[in-house]
Structures are given as structure tokens and as C-alpha cells.
């Protein structure tokens, strides 16, 4: 027993030193990535301003405030900053190489194996299964066998870094080709006023703004210009410009330059989660219309070989008269059969196969939509919110945990539809085509 405790204590010291080294590496990487991105952005804007009238008005953000200047002043400012960033990136690159060498030598010396965030959560489910004396099924989980001669370390930052460096590069010019470009002069109200903010997310805040013709639009402004944020930005543009459906939010245009943003149609009804929490009897007559429209939109995007990737009540908007439901937030959208980049999405709506490192398919959207339908009818959370997230994920994946589909609030016809959406095995789930057909046919 003492020997075992001594080994554990020594491993803890190794892990702590490793984490410290890894954190130092990641700090430098983040600094380098930020500086390199800033330099690219400065160069891009500087080149765009070339040839423009130096006296022309220009805008930039500083300290969260929108500042007005002119092209000549901004160009000089950009040129000076580009020179500083070139020196800084060279210094950071040298610093990073030295720290990486130290890190790699330590990993080799102590035979350390790094597992991703997703594998770490699966390991936690494995431990939970052991505690409950349950056996996990063979298959994808086989790779989780632990080699006790190695030190297992969960490193979320490393997982994110590997994802970002292995992403398929998007040609930004191709993505935005044919998309209308707005300028800040096209809007009449304060863009960064808290009074105008109608939504917040991990990558962007959304503002209700007025055009000069009096029409309101939703302006999704990026919080920063880092690699992850830009990926979601261009991914959403790429998907939405190919969509044309009354139940999918419409892309009106983009903001480019020092401020990146997406201009979307504005819907005054709020999101579905808010509606479910503040339910009114008159909404009942709209339920079938919501579900019918959303299932039609789902079929449309799946026919284009796209998956939404994050279907939940927060990502569904309502029209001003509350009669039309609209899918929004396509930043996490994926092609059918694409590998998920991370352990993303709200766990209650996450299909079980994604807990086993499966590819993201249209059947994942079907499962999430089934959960949303269940919640629309019951106005309840699908699972006990007091439970641990890992425990819920384990039970959904390996114990066939489902919400009560026989809930008396759900019409019998829709009980069958929801059940066919929530099949544990994706191959047994209903297709979006059959789903839409069953909904419009009725009981």
C-alpha cells in the first residue's frame, strides 16, 4: 500500500511539472498566434486602404468604443503596428522553439501520453461504469485501455490547438464572394450599446441595429479575431449563403475589415428557450407549425449535405407573431459524416454516438431535434439537471436513458415520431425526409 501511495505521489509531481511546462508552451503559442493574426489583419486592412482617398472617413474599435478617423491616419497607424508585430512574432517564435524543446525532452524522459478532452470524458464514463459494475460495449471504447506504465494527462488546450492546426483551411475570399458587404455607415444606431444587445455567445455578441431605411437587422459582431472565432465566422457565412428556406435565418451580408460581423434578418419573437420558460396558452396552436417548418428546414439543409451541428432551443428563433420558428447560429455546422472538432454542444441534446468519437451525421441532428420536440410539448428539461453531466452522458450512451416519451402532454402521434428520433443507434433513427413526411401527414 505504501509503495502504491509513493508511486502515485511521484506521478502527481510529474503531472504537475508537465502541466506547468505545457501551460508555458500554450501561453507562448497563444501570444504568437495572436500576434501573427494581428499582423495578418493589419496587413490585409492596410492593403485594402491603399489607393483610397486619405481624407475618407474610417472607423476602428478601441477599448470597446467605436472611433472615427480618416484613411490616411489609419494607414500610418497600421504601418507602424505591422513593423512592431514583425519583430514581436520573430521573438516569440524563438522563445516558443526553446520551450518546446524543453517540453518534448520532459515528455520523452517520463513516457507521458496526452489524451484529448473527449477521451478524458470517455475515461470518466469508463470509471463511472466500473463503479456501477457495468461493462462497456466493445468497439470504439477499446482504445481507452489504460497503460499503467504511462502517465495519462488531460490537456484541453492541446486538443484545441491540434484541432485548429489541422482544420481544413478556408479561402476567406471564396467564402465571402457574392455576399453583400455592409459598412458601419449603413447603420444609424450605436452598435455597442448594451440596450441594443439581444444575444451573447462564445464567439460573438448580437445587436439589434437600424438601417438608414428604418429596417432592423441583427448584427453579429465577433468578440475577437482569433483562429477559432474566425473559423466559426467564415463557416457560418459559407453555410448560410447556400441556404434559402423560410425557417432558416437569412444572411443579408457581412462586415469586413477591422470589425468582422454578420448581418442577419431580425426576428422579434426571441428564442424558443425563452418562449418555453414564459409560456402562454395561445402558443399551443403554433406548435405543429413550428415543428413542421423546422423539420422542412432540416430536410432542406440535409439535402445540401449540411448538418446544423448544435440544435437546441437557444438556436431557434420565433417570428414577431410567434407563428414561425427559425433555425439560427450555424457557426458549428458541419458536412455530413464530418469528424466533430470538439466535445461541443449542450449535453442534453447531444446524441449518444458522439460520446464514442463517432462522425457527425444528419442522424445527430435528428436526435437533437427529437429532444427539442419533446421539450416543446412538455416545457420541461429532458433530464434531471441536478445530475452530473458525465453521469447523464454515460446513461444516455450505455444505459439507453431517454426522457419520458409517454408524457401525457405529448400527443400520441408525436410520441411515436419523437421515439423514432431518439433511437440510441443512429441507423435505427428516422431520416429527415421520413420525419417531415410523418409530421405533415398527421395521425
UniProtKB/TrEMBL annotation:
The keyword Magnesium does not apply. Residues 192-443 form the Protein kinase domain. One of its GO terms (molecular function) is protein serine/threonine kinase activity. One of its GO terms (biological process) is reticulophagy. Keywords: ATP-binding, Coiled coil, Kinase, Nucleotide-binding, Transferase. Residues 75-109 form a coiled coil. ATP binds at residue 220. InterPro entries: Atg1-like (IPR045269), Kinase-like_dom_sf (IPR011009), PFD_beta-like (IPR002777), Prefoldin (IPR009053), Prot_kinase_dom (IPR000719), Protein_kinase_ATP_BS (IPR017441). The keyword Coiled coil applies. Heterohexamer of two PFD-alpha type and four PFD-beta type subunits. Belongs to the prefoldin subunit beta family. This is Prefoldin subunit 2. It comes from Strongyloides stercoralis (Threadworm).
Amino acid at each position: 500500500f505504501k509503495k502504491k501511495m509513493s508511486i502515485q505521489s511521484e506521478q502527481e509531481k510529474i503531472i504537475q511539472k508537465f502541466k506547468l511546462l505545457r501551460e508555458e508552451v500554450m501561453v507562448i503559442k497563444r501570444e504568437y498566434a495572436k500576434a501573427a493574426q494581428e499582423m495578418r489583419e493589419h496587413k490585409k486592412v492596410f492593403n485594402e486602404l491603399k489607393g483610397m482617398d486619405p481624407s475618407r472617413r474610417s472607423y476602428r474599435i478601441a477599448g470597446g468604443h467605436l472611433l472615427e478617423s480618416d484613411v490616411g491616419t489609419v494607414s500610418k497607424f497600421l504601418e507602424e503596428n505591422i513593423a512592431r508585430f514583425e519583430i514581436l512574432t520573430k521573438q516569440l517564435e524563438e522563445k516558443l522553439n526553446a520551450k518546446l524543446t524543453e517540453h518534448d525532452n520532459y515528455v520523452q524522459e517520463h513516457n507521458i501520453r496526452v489524451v484529448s478532452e473527449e477521451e478524458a470524458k470517455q475515461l470518466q464514463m469508463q470509471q463511472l461504469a466500473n463503479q456501477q459494475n457495468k461493462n462497456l460495449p466493445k468497439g470504439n471504447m477499446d482504445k481507452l485501455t489504460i497503460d499503467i506504465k504511462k502517465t495519462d494527462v488531460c490537456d484541453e488546450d492541446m486538443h484545441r490547438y491540434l484541432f485548429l492546426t489541422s482544420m481544413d483551411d478556408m479561402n476567406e475570399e471564396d467564402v465571402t464572394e457574392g455576399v453583400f458587404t455592409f459598412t458601419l455607415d449603413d447603420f444609424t444606431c450605436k452598435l455597442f450599446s448594451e440596450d441594443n444587445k439581444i444575444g451573447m455567445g462564445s464567439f460573438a455578441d448580437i445587436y439589434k441595429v437600424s438601417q438608414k431605411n428604418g429596417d432592423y437587422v441583427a448584427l453579429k459582431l465577433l468578440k475577437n479575431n482569433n483562429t477559432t472565432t474566425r473559423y466559426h465566422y467564415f463557416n457560418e457565412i459559407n453555410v448560410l449563403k447556400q441556404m434559402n428556406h423560410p425557417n432558416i435565418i437569412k444572411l443579408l451580408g457581412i462586415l469586413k475589415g477591422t470589425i468582422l460581423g454578420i448581418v442577419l434578418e431580425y426576428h422579434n419573437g426571441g428564442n424558443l428557450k425563452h418562449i418555453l420558460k414564459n409560456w402562454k396558452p395561445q402558443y399551443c396552436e403554433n406548435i405543429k407549425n413550428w415543428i413542421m417548418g423546422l423539420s422542412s428546414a432540416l430536410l432542406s439543409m440535409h439535402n445540401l449535405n449540411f448538418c446544423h451541428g448544435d440544435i437546441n432551443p437557444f438556436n431557434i428563433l420565433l417570428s414577431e407573431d410567434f407563428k414561425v420558428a427559425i433555425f439560427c447560429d450555424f457557426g458549428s455546422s458541419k458536412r455530413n459524416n464530418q469528424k466533430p472538432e470538439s466535445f461541443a454542444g449542450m449535453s442534453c441534446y447531444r446524441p449518444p454516438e458522439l460520446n464514442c468519437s463517432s462522425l457527425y451525421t444528419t442522424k445527430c441532428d435528428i436526435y437533437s431535434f427529437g429532444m427539442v420536440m419533446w421539450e416543446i410539448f412538455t416545457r420541461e428539461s429532458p433530464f434531471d439537471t441536478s445530475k452530473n453531466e458525465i453521469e447523464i452522458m454515460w446513461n444516455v450512451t450505455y444505459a439507453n436513458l431517454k426522457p419520458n416519451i409517454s408524457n401525457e402532454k405529448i400527443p400520441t402521434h408525436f410520441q411515436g415520431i419523437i421515439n423514432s428520433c431518439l433511437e440510441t443507434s443512429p441507423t435505427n433513427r428516422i431520416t429527415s425526409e421520413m420525419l417531415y413526411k410523418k409530421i405533415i401527414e398527421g395521425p
